[in-house]
Amino acid sequence: MDTVIYLILFFVVIALLLFGAYETLPKIHKLNKTINQKTLDSFGGDKKQIDAFKSGEKKLNVVTGQYVILAIVATAFVLSIIFPEMANNYLIIVLFVLEAIYIFLGLKLPSLEKKHGEFTGDVLKKRLQAIRLTFFAFIGFFVAVDVLILIIELLFSQNIRLL
Which of 47, 115, 137, 155 could pair with 24 in a Cys bridge, judged by C-beta atoms 3.0 to 4.6 Å apart? Predict the structure, then answer.
């Protein structure tokens, strides 16, 4: 009986994850597209401002670090489905540490955006909204992955493999 509950829970969490991605990713894309277009329009061909806009290295490093953490977490999740022996408490601890680093970087990004960003007024508000939305979407993804790995661990303890 517990196995059926775990399987139902597994698919419910996956459905919630897909629904969250379906709701937030188009909004994030639309906000970023609007921001980039308004920013380039506001420069009016000023080469210095366009170069400064394209050279946000600190922000790029933070965002790249966030995506690397996302890739590691997603890879660990996929590998734990294929190799359920991997889904154990040590993996959960490692994921928690990575997620804590992601949260630190995510909380650092809005201040970097205000400090080093070229955005002002309405565009800055939309940019910060896009950053917050992306941050919380990924936090939801991390929570879902943690729950799914725990479910995989419970299923494996009952000798059930998903693949």
Answer: 137
The domain spans of the chain are 1-161
User: Rounded to whole angstroms, what are the CA distances from 141 to 50, 54, 63?
Assistant: 34, 29, 16
pTM above 0.70, yes or no: yes
Higher pLDDT, residue 46 or 135: 135
Helix axis angle for 47-54 and 2-43, nearest 10°, is: 160
Sort residue 65 into left (φ over 0), alpha (ψ -120 to 50) or beta: alpha
Burial class (CB in 10 A: 0-12, 13-18, 19+), 121: exposed
Distance CA(140)–CA(8), nearest Å, equals 19
Contact between 16 and 157 under an 8 Å Cβ cutoff? The reply is no
Q: Which two tokens stand for residue 3?
A: 């196995």
**Residue-wise pLDDT tens digits, 64-100:** 889 889 999 999 999 899 888 888 889 999 999 999 9
Closest CA to 97 of 150, 156, 146: 146
